[in-house]
Design goal:
This protein is mostly helical. It has two domains: 173 residues, no CATH class; 77 residues, no CATH class. It is 68% helix and 1% strand.
Length: 271
Amino acid sequence: MSFSTLLHKLLQIVSGKKYRNCPGGAAVDPAAQRALQAGLINSEQIMAYCDSYTTGLSDDVLTEGLGSYWDTNSPQEAAETLAWLGSYGHRFFYDIVFRVYSDGASGDGRQEVLEALVASGRYGSPETLRKQLAAQGPCEEKDLVFSALEQAMEILGNLRSVFRVLEDKVNGSYLPKDYSAGILAWDLGRLVTVARMSLDCKYIEQDEFGRILAHVDKELRSNFSSWPQFAKSYIIGRASWGGQNMTLGGIIGIAEDLMTDKKSPWVLSPL
């Protein structure tokens, strides 16, 4: 993405109309409303409707968003993306690298992260995988775990660069306990947005969309007691995923507005 394109998008974030309401009416179910609000930072970023199942985005924007940013171009790919966000997401890597970082890993922490990925069981039997890693020659499991290792190491590098640096106008400076709480909000917020876009593209049915919103609402009520707490988790997730850049500042600005603007859905409907 060129600098001019990035700047244009940032200006859209700053100057775009806030809290776009759907002309066709808002979602009426309280659980669905809460789940939609979990996606508010992301929906404000892309200037989608804030209160409805449909995003209100054009077909071109939907196709570009799902295809370019999520490699999602079909019902099957949508199902895989949504399942990943719901079950693992970036929090799977973050929880591993935060533990390695907190334990004071030697060197760059690569060996410790690799062992944690193997021990997780996600890539097959840990005992079998260790033997495969020690053996010569390629295999699918080795490729998967080494690909995961690169993703995890990137998140570890970003975490090191932002640890105890992040802050917002409502929560102040983020403390170590905020980082140790994890980045569930980052995955939940994106899960809501991807589900809405997939529904608009007819990649998923209404029943599946409702199941996703119910899952998000359950996770939201079980893990967060306020929207500011949710915002911290989301911002730490965004920073750990993408590091410090211009867009991160825009994301933090959106979150600050959502936490303070008297017209914000978060202010009007506290968690």
